[in-house]
Specification:
With 189 residues, this protein is of the alpha+beta class. The protein has helices at 3-8, 11-18, 31-35, 87-90, 92-97, 120-138, 165-177, and strands at 45-50, 59-65, 68-74, 104-107, 116-119, 139-142, 148-159, 180-185. It has 3 domains: 3-35, no CATH class; 39-97, Single Sheet (N-terminal domain of TfIIb), CATH 2.20.25; 104-185, no CATH class. InterPro entries: Mopterin_OxRdtase_4Fe-4S_dom.
């Protein structure tokens, strides 16, 4: 390759030669930049989601390939955010896929002085067992007047504002089916 060929590959000389003062066209391209494509181009599907950070409920598009998340972007179809995400929402991909993500739970046994790490699955099983035990132990089929109430007052639920309407609806249905009547949401308080 001669000196002229080498200089012809330099973007500034291509700009001068073609009159591309802004360098937004072909003169700014290199072989590498021509081969680049967005991470989302390889996605086999896009799953609609909601940002988990605050009560605004910005829409997100989760780009997935072979069951693995490639990228998370703002959902342009969302009437709430119209494709825009705040810095926290933009970092959701790192939250979901980052190596720093916590995959276990800190647990301190009754009477214990130290925290121990247990797998998330074990913690979920422990919560389910405790909900069942508490519900069974505090179940009221009738009240003091003999009226059917089929409820438990031994469990209450306080929801968070990061949940969207659909998630709150499902939680309300679940807890009502369990006979829990003390159900509130932080977004309303």
């Amino acid at each position: 390759m001669g000196l002229f060929d080498l200089l012809a590959r330099w973007p500034l000389l291509r700009q001068v030669k073609t009159g591309d003062a802004t360098a937004l066209g072909e003169t700014a391209m290199s072989e590498r930049s021509r081969s680049l494509e967005p991470r989302t181009a390889r996605a086999d599907r896009v799953v609609k989601s909601v940002c988990p950070y605050c009560a605004v409920g910005c829409g997100q598009d989760v780009h997935v390939q072979d069951g693995r998340i490639l990228d998370i972007e703002g959902d342009a179809d969302s009437p709430v955010s119209r494709g825009r995400l705040c810095p926290k929402g933009s970092a959701t991909f790192q939250l979901v896929t980052g190596t720093h993500r916590v995959k276990d739970v800190l647990y301190r046994r009754p009477g214990g002085r130290e925290w121990e790490r247990i797998p998330l699955e074990q913690a979920m099983d422990m919560v389910a067992d405790r909900v069942k035990r508490t519900r069974d132990a505090t179940w009221e089929a009738t009240d003091a007047h003999g009226h059917d109430v089929r409820r438990t007052l031994g469990i209450a639920h306080l929801g968070g504002a990061t949940l969207d309407n659909e998630e709150n609806y499902l939680i309300k249905k679940l807890f009502t089916a369990l006979g829990i009547v003390q159900i509130e949401n932080q977004a309303r308080i």
